[in-house]
Amino acid sequence: MAPFRGYPIERLGLLACAGKECRPIPFQVDQRGADGRWLLDHGPQAGAPSGVLGDNDVLLFMAGDAGDAVGAQDLPDGAHTTQVAVWDPVTGITRWAYLMAFGDRAPRSPLSYVEYDPRTDRVRGARVILGFENGVPGYLAIAREGPDTEVNLLDRFKVRATATFLWGLIHFARSEEDLRTRFVAWHAGPIRVIRQQEQWVRIGWGIRSPTFGSYTYFYRDSAELPVGLRLNFPPTYFFGDIMVRAMLDFRDLRGWSVLSPSLSPPIPIDGTMTAAKEMLNQLPDSWFALLGPQITLVQTLDVSPSLASVRRRLLYNEDLSKAEPPEGSAGQVPGIGYQLDRWERVGAGTHQLLSYSYALAPDVDVRQFMASCNAPLQVRVTLQQ
Q1: Structural domains of the chain ordered from first start
Q2: What's the pTM?
């Protein structure tokens, strides 16, 4: 990317070729400041992107849009041309794209893979629409032709924490209702939407948790949510028996089934809790999948090495009538997520939780897909002229 340093981004174009016919493909350049933070151009605390390519900026495109390898004679005239080769170690296939600097405004593809509506705080991808309410996911619908056909599958995203305080003298519990959120900024391009917010927990007794910041990245078929938290002292300095539960509370997924690495075959979701489903609460699995007739939803959770001593287990409940307020509607069909406990060895410093969500076609083999995530694409960049 060095030869393009200082070029106006509007003069950069990304092309893919089929045979000798080349066309612009969707791409975006996300800009970062010297401190590595994203310069997001919309929102109450928007930054000021320079509009020219800098050393900290990131170029993004969909690997599936790349095409054939061609010679310089098959490309339009440009000041510089860089060939970007993308190799898939799973299939062994290599595809190519060409980044070019034009003398005037570069040609652009009209295609966009994501859309963001800041009024409703919802983003639309190819298969799902995901929305936030008070800083946490509160809307999840299968993307259809029009808004009148959308059905919210999600009651809410539940975050429940329990602990003891003052050497066990006081027991307390907090939920997502105690989260306080400050929306910071956002940026939308044809490849992804970046949404930034800051949150803290109202603990009580004049105490609030440290502020933790998060960026949410929405792509055509996936979302990435890293949450960073800096602790000035170990969490058990004041608190004991800490337990954190994070659960997606679905309204009614009867007719779907649930799958995890330890499950074979999937278990049908029918509104009743069974011994086999109860066993899910003992599994240390790092991902689960909800298999529906039109879509497969996959959720993962990973932690930074600083949280390696924390025990992570699946959390599952399926009951049509049992209430667990606060919630919009009684029952969880299902409620599924993760439980984190055994915080005794966590020290002060910076910690991170990282969640990936995928929306897949129903015929995708989830196990094969998850295995492919451990074999990332390889990229090679070559300056041609």
Answers
A1: 2-111 (no CATH), 115-372 (2.70.98.30)
A2: 0.92
